[in-house]
Write a structure and sequence with these properties.
Blueprint: E1 8-11, E2 15-19, E3 29-33, H1 45-66, E4 70-74, E5 85-91, H2 93-101, H3 123-136, H4 148-164
Antiparallel strand pairs: 1-2, 2-3, 3-5, 4-5
Helix pairs in contact: 1-4
Length: about 160
């Protein structure tokens, strides 16, 4: 799948960092292998060595520039036609507040393990919320913070500065 240039933040010989193209949540990034494979074991040693460095750079850039309450990093995709890739999902206070206000997501709670006075959630529930509300919904909720184009510009600068050191 070709990623439109306006979403690309950083590229190396082995990896592409981009804003997720079908997400309206600013700062939701993807790290995708250039080689078409779904297996880390199939990647060259140089790509594997670069993987950890890039994951750390992405985390540092998101946290330093946007201070999300949480940052989820994971590998979920397995569909044919996509190379191995990793998701970087920022959970800002306003995203979590939106989650708690939406009664549909209370159905996910395991009430036997939740103290009613201080309900809690986990990464799986918030990830599902982000996917449903910011990636799949035709009318996504409003954003409280910088817009996607602004986030991309800040992160491009951050990556350019860090890579030029």
């Amino acid at each position: 799948m070709e990623i439109p240039a306006r979403y690309i933040i950083h590229e190396t010989l082995y990896w592409t960092v981009n804003h997720r193209i079908d997400s309206t949540l600013p700062g939701y990034l993807m790290l995708s292998a250039e080689q078409m494979t779904n297996s880390l074991a199939a990647l060259p040693a140089e790509a594997l060595a670069e993987l950890g460095v890039l994951q750390a750079m992405i985390q540092k850039a998101i946290e330093a520039n946007f201070q999300p309450r949480r940052l989820y990093i994971g590998r979920f995709g397995h569909d044919a036609g996509y190379s191995i890739h990793f998701h970087f999902i920022p959970i800002h206070a306003w995203v979590e507040a939106m989650f708690w206000r939406d009664a549909r997501y209370r159905l996910l709670q395991n009430f036997s393990s939740i103290d009613a006075a201080s309900p809690q959630t986990d990464g799986a529930e918030l990830t599902l919320f982000v996917w449903r509300e910011f990636c799949e919904r035709p009318d996504p909720p409003p954003i409280d913070g910088p817009l996607i184009d602004e986030v991309i510009a800040v992160l491009r600068y951050s990556f350019g500065f860090h890579c030029d050191e």
